[in-house]
Amino acid sequence: MIVILGAGATEEQIQQVIAALEQRGYGAHLSRGVERTIVGAIGILEAEQKQLLAQQLEAFPFVERVVPILKPYKLASREFHPEPTIVAVEDLRIGAEQVVVMAGPCSVESREQLLEAARAVKAAGASMLRGGAFKPSTSPYGFTGLEAEGLQLLREAKEETGLPIVTEVMDPRDVELVAECADVLQVGTRNMSNFMLLRELSRASRPVLLKRGMSSTLEEWLQAAEYIMLGGNERVILCERGIRTFEPHTRFTLDINAVPAMKQLSHLPLLVDPSHGTGRRELVAAASRAAVAAGADGLLVEVHPHPEKALKDGAQSLTPEGFAEMMRTLRPVAEAVGRRL
Amino acid sequence: MIVILGAGATEEQIQQVIAALEQRGYGAHLSRGVERTIVGAIGILEAEQKQLLAQQLEAFPFVERVVPILKPYKLASREFHPEPTIVAVEDLRIGAEQVVVMAGPCSVESREQLLEAARAVKAAGASMLRGGAFKPSTSPYGFTGLEAEGLQLLREAKEETGLPIVTEVMDPRDVELVAECADVLQVGTRNMSNFMLLRELSRASRPVLLKRGMSSTLEEWLQAAEYIMLGGNERVILCERGIRTFEPHTRFTLDINAVPAMKQLSHLPLLVDPSHGTGRRELVAAASRAAVAAGADGLLVEVHPHPEKALKDGAQSLTPEGFAEMMRTLRPVAEAVGRRL
Amino acid sequence: MIVILGAGATEEQIQQVIAALEQRGYGAHLSRGVERTIVGAIGILEAEQKQLLAQQLEAFPFVERVVPILKPYKLASREFHPEPTIVAVEDLRIGAEQVVVMAGPCSVESREQLLEAARAVKAAGASMLRGGAFKPSTSPYGFTGLEAEGLQLLREAKEETGLPIVTEVMDPRDVELVAECADVLQVGTRNMSNFMLLRELSRASRPVLLKRGMSSTLEEWLQAAEYIMLGGNERVILCERGIRTFEPHTRFTLDINAVPAMKQLSHLPLLVDPSHGTGRRELVAAASRAAVAAGADGLLVEVHPHPEKALKDGAQSLTPEGFAEMMRTLRPVAEAVGRRL
Amino acid sequence: MIVILGAGATEEQIQQVIAALEQRGYGAHLSRGVERTIVGAIGILEAEQKQLLAQQLEAFPFVERVVPILKPYKLASREFHPEPTIVAVEDLRIGAEQVVVMAGPCSVESREQLLEAARAVKAAGASMLRGGAFKPSTSPYGFTGLEAEGLQLLREAKEETGLPIVTEVMDPRDVELVAECADVLQVGTRNMSNFMLLRELSRASRPVLLKRGMSSTLEEWLQAAEYIMLGGNERVILCERGIRTFEPHTRFTLDINAVPAMKQLSHLPLLVDPSHGTGRRELVAAASRAAVAAGADGLLVEVHPHPEKALKDGAQSLTPEGFAEMMRTLRPVAEAVGRRL
């Protein structure tokens, strides 16, 4: 790390910085410029020590800025682990050549609804089934899912269609229960910084699909992945799902830059959720094509047999026909970038 | 609610909308304009029904927009409850004439550190002690608090100084434990949409200090308050703590507009956290004065006896001297708006 | 428009709203709900009148909200003009089957630099040459372009390569001068709301490439297009170039949703600028593929023969080799969506 | 500046960086760390050179980041000019003890309207009259001002009331015309990065009130001020007027942090515009008190004798009574922070 001292830093202040570095085991490399004095830290520290030291140096009133040199994550970084990680889910290999499409309703509402959706997405070429049994709802008056019953229905849908299941877990107390049924455990955007949940998931027996927080930077997102990996669960799948901006036409702004950026910063597989990323059914197919063209390893798409009867997110859900049409236009795009659906 | 149909909506589509309204028990009020057809819903529905119906109408491809007429929260709204709510914490009355200042370190680090801070903030005029025993940390390598031991130290500090305690709870499993020690349970910005935690807090025996999510709208924030109130805990204290914007000079952008806006939209007491709201010690006093001048009912301020040794947030922590100086400049501002410290 | 009155609006206030509508020539359609009174405006007003009336109604303290029914633009809207507009530039037809790639250096720096860039982008398949003679610079110490000399060099480059020219105009006084040399006049992101410039361009003899303001909504962007069209210049080409968000890893966040959204809202052709949209050379090719997959009619790409010697934007400029490689990977994507380069 | 090279930078690449520094007249200070190599630039360069060099170094593919040490502005900086600047306008001293309140209608609409407003704001204690003769309008169908006639009316209002005038100039061609009538030339938020206008204003004979761009960082804002100062006009008054964020309840988010931050970064006087900063009349008084409590040197407030008849911005305009009431509550706050109205 590099410590930039404010204009007019005294000799004593410079020595305080050097002492703080040396006390932690760093060497100090002093550079007295015309307008600023700069102290570089030399050596390697444990991540815990480095993080703390940077904060403490910044708290000196005479320190103008501390510039970190390395990224604040390691296990998730491409620099540390140059080969792409492939997460296996039954026969699927997420992060390999195939673009993995996970589709299904926002929420599990009934056996009939779920099975109808599951058959439709399978017929159109989806590889996994999505569907929420535990649902976050901004309004306390909204639908919050069928919970255990929903999990049971997901299991039935898997039995019938063979599609592996991805479903959300919101409460650290439910991780085990959900892991019994789900093939992949989803962390929603509102829980990306729910560190108690992440810690529990780091000990889970299932891969984790980690959605980006709607106002999280790429760096914060990778640190959330690091939480899960540091605890021992290295099977993390990232999912860009739109960020909050000033634009009101769409529900969120899908950050397409994040796709190639994250593939460079990290070795983890990366999906895109075009349903939340746009919030409008009529934009989903175009956003999906963009995601695959930009290098996404897969998609997470909301499909409902009857969107106008959906208990949640109907306006952004594709109909089965819309989904089939999307898949038809997606296939040549996947091939154009050397992938397949 | 008002349903605006797309240009060229057919008679059959109009009837579908009317039928959907009538099926739920609403009357329908049709207005055929030159360029659009509009259907108004007449009657009163339960919040659950209304929320769902609006979503389902929006999912019709021929519906352009659904415009809600009423706010999506009720218990938290000033319209429903015109009188200001005052939350009593021991002798303090939060939301009444006194501007309540809660101060203390970001994290409880040791007995010595906490007591030194507690004595200092009390001497300078604080009314409550803040300090985290359970700490969210963006980095998995960062400090996450002394946990149960930290709670015990907070209890000691209260015994010695008499200051009531506000401290954060992050895990639904810890609510009871924290409630045994804390006088006010704090929900941090990363947990405002942790609905499992909110649900648990709605059954807690302590008032809840609900920080605004860093990318939450005022409406979402009030819905989070509604969660807690709907479950039976009406003692909610709001806390504006800065939102995420494009400006990099400050850690967050303190939304000062939120102060008068929330006092108009809601009857709940409202605090401001100038430490996170700015992220820079040198801006905290000015932001505090602004908050009180704008009508805040109190402040939540980070104070550390030795910021350069803090395990967290040193750069935004005031020293005891800085805090005392802030209090001196704050007092006349409070009086200028008819309040007292 | 629909006028929603506050709770407890009196009969007299309702009549004031009706009178204001009738005075302008609207009919009023009253709906007294249980909790709110709503007045709908019936009839057709000139855009000027409607805009003003909505503002004035909102200024009544007892009016809660005015909900507009129609979009605030007409000439630019798909609803008013369902057929896509194709802008012809010499032999090119922008908005038709071909994906039009405009490439070249950020700034014209010298004859040698420009010609080297022009030859390279032509060889790799670009259809137009970009290059700034007048350059906005955030810093007053930065490079602001060769001005008239730069225009002359662009003309030479066109003579040699046959590539039509797109170049920026920043000052209403320069429109005529730039129009003599350029085939397309570019409005930069910082000038999208420079209405004096837009007005001048509405009388220009050249098509206008209108970049989105970095914090402009889609609706504001279309109103800026409407300015130019209303003055008589209907040859407007839109260009998404990234918006300002909280994410620091990229210079801007390319709003990929804007591509299909604008193609639905408007009939105007739409380009994407992946160079500014990402600000990082290593992301440009992926963003370009995403743009074309999402339906963009073309690209505006920065290419510099020696980025490390560029006077501006070197970090986001492709080398000629990088550009050629990007074109190679772009071709199959264009074909996958039924277009060609 | 500090140049951080990517992991695995070769000896040759390091030498390329050193050569680039030395070629410009810098010394190079090399620090080979375990994980990164860092090159510090030693010496003083002209701002133009430094700006360019940083960009060019960043364009090397093997350079990870260039960290600037000094701010990209000088004339506007507090470091370079520690004493506060006071801008004199007739008898007023903007930036001194008095909090200068500039008030009046958004737009000049008629003699009657302007004079009624001018008399009212004077009676309530305003020190200057604001009012737009040239008005930016997002919609091409909106009101764009009375132009020359409006200037004439402002002159009359000044003659009658003695209040100096601040009014907006939008077109570089109008600077001279507006300067004949106005005491202070206002640059609106949409023109903060209109560098052609800034350049013209740098040669004007009047002080410039420079509003912050609605998506501009503090650093960009200070660079805009630097443009004007560098050209010779050092009488710049800054004005915070709200930034664009995700929050829809208010028109903009007033960045109150910017007040103390800018007073620390710069010596220039700073006003706040609570009318645009909130967009809602009912929040203006609270925002004004906050601004003064935070250290603003003045306010720019919209007041209209009949907001519901205003041609622009009625919903955020105070009535004369509302303004008088605001001034009454503002006075004790000003005194509480050692100022006066």
Describe the protein in words.
Four copies of one chain form a homotetramer. The first copy, chain A, is α/β, with parallel strands linked by helices and 341 residues long. Chain A has two domains: 2-67, Alpha-Beta Plaits; 87-336, TIM Barrel (Alpha-Beta Barrel). In chain A, 36% of the residues lie in helices and 18% in strands. Chain A has eleven helices and 14 strands. In chain A, the strands form three sheets. An eight-stranded parallel beta barrel of chain A has the order 7-8-9-10-11-12-13-14, surrounded by six helices. In chain A, strands 2-3-1-4 form a four-stranded antiparallel sheet, with helices on one face. In chain A, a hairpin with a 4-residue loop joins strand 2 (27-32) and strand 3 (37-42). The longest helix of chain A is centred in the C-terminal third of the chain and has 17 residues, at 320-336. Chain A is elongated and about 75 Å long. The mean pLDDT of chain A is 96. The interface between C and D is large, with 55 and 54 residues.
